[in-house]
Amino acid sequence: MTTATTTTPLPGTDTVLELLPKVSLHDHLDGGLRPQTIIELAEEAGVELPTTDADELAAWFAEKSNSGSLVEYLKTFDITTAVMQTREGLERVAREAVLDLAADGVVWGEIRWAPEQHLTRGLSLDETVEAVQAGLDAGVAEARSLGQRIRVGQIVSAMRHADRGLEIAELAVRHRDNGVVGFDIAGAEAGFPAGRMRDAFDLLAASFFPATVHAGEADGLESIRGALLDGRALRLGHGVRLAEDIDITTEGESTFARLGTLAEWVKDRGIALETSPSSNLQTGAIAQWGDELVDHPLDLFYQLGFRVTVNTDNRLMSGTTLSRELALVADAFGYGVADILAFQLNAAEAAFLPVEDRVELAEMLVEGFEAALAGEHAG
């Protein structure tokens, strides 16, 4: 999926969202492949596909992903990971991911993936990380040759059910000077709490290496509590079910929100919520509040002052881009340019970057928004 020719207006305005600089914190490498790339890599690898037409394949992924179940949603990754088992496949997918993010206006992107899922064709864990980094570097160089500004970092994920957490944490730390900026645990959330990988998180803490943890997507408050206590998470992957710890009451024309201690801690510490609106609908993460985007607790969090960020999760499965996700939430909640910038500044502050780089990134975002809007008004 390429976004080079896409123009997504901010609802109610002439502002083209692709032209605004953006920060992407939650983007899965194996969830963002171009359909045509899957077809070509599958032919080389002997992987059977439901169709060899790129448009039909994109539609197939979207259909299978709209299941309302995280477990069913995750099954679509059997195909994408199957074509990412060689150095060449990993490099190509990583390079194209950077180009697609750059075309969408992303200036800092953190791309996460699970090396342990890419070993069936003989690569070692270190070789997979090196292959992905080579692809990311090539993508950045190519994007910059096209006049696009983008930097990226890898987030190495351990699969919650696989019991290789310590090994993957060691891998992440080993490559901290070769593009890896953070650690994550992913996969089936319910039944696989962060505490199962306490040794991995102990190592990361001792190494002063940052972690984000998928939590509050397919499981509730206990999962989030575990991510914070056992995982020492600096960010929550999705985190939408934190809304279960917020009590809303109405008295006359006034509405009041009472935060439980967990929600209060997340808010007061500035722990970022990596919401992914379309994905959260697809997996049923917000089912208890409704089945439309306007039911998403994202706006509740935002109005209460949480560090909310907007992300894509899996661009292929959701048929989306970051610009599209921002347009969707803007349409649902009546957001304007200032709100879109606020989400980007939240993401910049939460990025796994040195503080000086985060300050520079925030300045770039503000300048980019001002320049884009000035050009629009001049036109």
UniProtKB/TrEMBL annotation:
The protein's name: adenosine deaminase
Biological-process GO terms, alphabetical: adenosine catabolic process; hypoxanthine salvage; inosine biosynthetic process; nucleotide metabolic process
MF GO annotations: adenosine deaminase activity; metal ion binding
Enzyme class: hydrolase
PANTHER family, per the entry: ADENOSINE DEAMINASE
Cofactor: Zn(2+)
InterPro entries: A_deaminase_dom, Ado/ade_deaminase, Metal_Hydrolase
NCBIfam families to which the protein is assigned, alphabetical: aden_deam (TIGR01430), PRK09358.1-2 (NF006847)
Residue intervals of the Adenosine deaminase domain: 21-365
Family: Belongs to the metallo-dependent hydrolases superfamily. Adenosine and AMP deaminases family.
GO CC terms in record: cytosol
Organism for this UniProt entry: Microcella alkalica
Swiss-Prot/TrEMBL keywords: Hydrolase, Metal-binding, Nucleotide metabolism, Zinc
E.C. number: 3.5.4.4
